[in-house]
């Protein structure tokens, strides 16, 4: 095997740089409060690092799943977090621990929780279009960084997009790289994965997965953030899949009341069946919707947040460019 990044047949990355600690997580961290979240094979808990007092989110991942050893899936998740480390909109990986049954990822704590909560909130608590513009720019900044490094996330949905704070509205942290893969020109992944409402038509047709697959999910995500409605959700999985493959979307005025035409145009540039015709992350960042001047809502700015963190980190030049543009 070459020393450079190794890949298995499914586009998983097998080489990590992090030191996997085998001493006791529980002697170095104190668990705080109740769970932050839970998936099929993972539970996420808030914790405090004992000497520093700093808060983190610990993701406990089971190595054995359905009787199979899934350690390499977790190594892939770690490897992708490492590749994305220099992007401020991807959650930061602090440390990794391993026990006989689990791997524990100690992640930056995103105190604002899932954007899902605001997506399903009543109108007065829901995102304003101006908020969505700012947050979507940050999501695209993270995703274009991933795509620039030939990484596809493959599970972009409101439960995997977190906020650094909720009130005032903070900044985006993309999490959950459990399904993420490395794509390149030769390798193709053909398997159904992801979450029914957010999967792209090519996944349903067992066609090749590319970075365009994530762009479809971003189209669904933006629709949900603006309207509170999941555009393809049917009564069951089958009808959801049928709605997706027919690209059956309601763009009617009553759903989009008070939302700009540019926002609509942005969504329509992504929810296109042919992945080759879908806008790419870089193109989306240049879409006029993201530079449209709507009334500025009261929200935390990237610079304010950086200031409060400034004892630990100083922003890098990429961050300064972003700060200037928000
Ligand atoms: P799964 O693969 O099980 O979906 P996730 O990484 O998505 O695992 O984590 C599950 C949930 O835990 C997330 O949807 C979110 O609510 C919460 N969570 C995950 N990471 C963090 C974090 N760094 N800070 C705060 N909450 C988190
Ligand atoms: Mg998740």
TrEMBL record:
Residues 296-318 are annotated as: Disordered. Keywords: Apoptosis, ATP-binding, Kinase, Nucleotide-binding, Nucleus, Phosphoprotein, Serine/threonine-protein kinase, Transferase. One of its GO terms (biological process) is positive regulation of apoptotic process. The keyword Acetylation does not apply. It holds the Pfam family Pkinase. Transmembrane segments: none annotated. ATP binds at residue 59. Residues 30-290 form the Protein kinase domain. GO terms for cellular component: nucleus. The keyword Nucleotide-binding applies. Its EC number is 2.7.11.1. InterPro entries: Kinase-like_dom_sf (IPR011009), Prot_kinase_dom (IPR000719), Protein_kinase_ATP_BS (IPR017441), Ser/Thr_kinase_AS (IPR008271). It is found in: Nucleus. It catalyses: L-seryl-[protein] + ATP = O-phospho-L-seryl-[protein] + ADP + H(+); L-threonyl-[protein] + ATP = O-phospho-L-threonyl-[protein] + ADP + H(+). Its main location: nucleus. Signal peptide: none annotated. One of its GO terms (molecular function) is ATP binding. Belongs to the protein kinase superfamily. CAMK Ser/Thr protein kinase family. DAP kinase subfamily. PANTHER family: SERINE/THREONINE-PROTEIN KINASE 17, SERINE_THREONINE KINASE 17A-LIKE. This is Serine/threonine-protein kinase 17A. The lineage of its organism: Eukaryota, Metazoa, Chordata, Craniata, Vertebrata.
């Amino acid at each position: 095997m070459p020393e450079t990044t190794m890949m298995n047949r499914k586009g998983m990355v097998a080489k990590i740089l992090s030191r996997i600690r085998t001493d006791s997580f529980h002697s170095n961290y104190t668990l705080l409060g109740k769970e932050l979240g839970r998936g099929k094979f993972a539970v996420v808990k808030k914790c405090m690092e004992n000497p520093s007092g700093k808060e983190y989110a610990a993701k406990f991942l089971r190595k054995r799943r359905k009787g199979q050893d899934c350690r390499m899936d977790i190594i892939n998740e770690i490897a992708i977090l490492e590749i994305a480390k220099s992007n401020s909109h991807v959650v930061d990986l602090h440390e990794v621990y391993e026990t006989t049954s689990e791997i524990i990822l100690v992640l930056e704590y995103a105190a604002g929780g899932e954007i899902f909560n605001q997506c399903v909130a009543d109108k007065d608590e829901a995102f304003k279009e101006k908020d969505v513009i700012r947050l979507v720019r940050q999501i695209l900044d993270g995703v274009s960084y991933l795509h620039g490094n030939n990484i596809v996330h493959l599970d972009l949905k409101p439960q995997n997009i977190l906020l650094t704070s909720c009130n005032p509205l903070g900044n985006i942290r993309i999490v959950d790289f459990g399904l993420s893969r490395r794509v390149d020109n030769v390798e193709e992944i053909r398997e159904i994965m992801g979450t029914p409402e957010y999967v792209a038509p090519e996944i349903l047709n067992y066609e090749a997965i590319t970075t365009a697959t994530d762009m479809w999910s971003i189209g669904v995500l933006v629709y949900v953030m603006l309207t509170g409605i999941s555009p393809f959700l049917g009564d069951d999985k089958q009808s959801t899949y049928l709605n997706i493959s027919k690209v059956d979307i309601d763009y009617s005025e009553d759903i989009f009341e008070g939302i700009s035409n540019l926002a609509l145009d942005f969504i329509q540039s992504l929810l296109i069946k042919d992945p080759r015709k879908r806008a790419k992350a870089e193109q989306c960042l240049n879409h006029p919707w993201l530079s449209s001047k709507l009334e500025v809502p009261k929200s935390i700015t990237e610079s304010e947040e950086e200031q409060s963190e400034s004892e630990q980190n100083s922003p890098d030049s990429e961050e300064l460019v972003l700060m200037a543009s928000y």
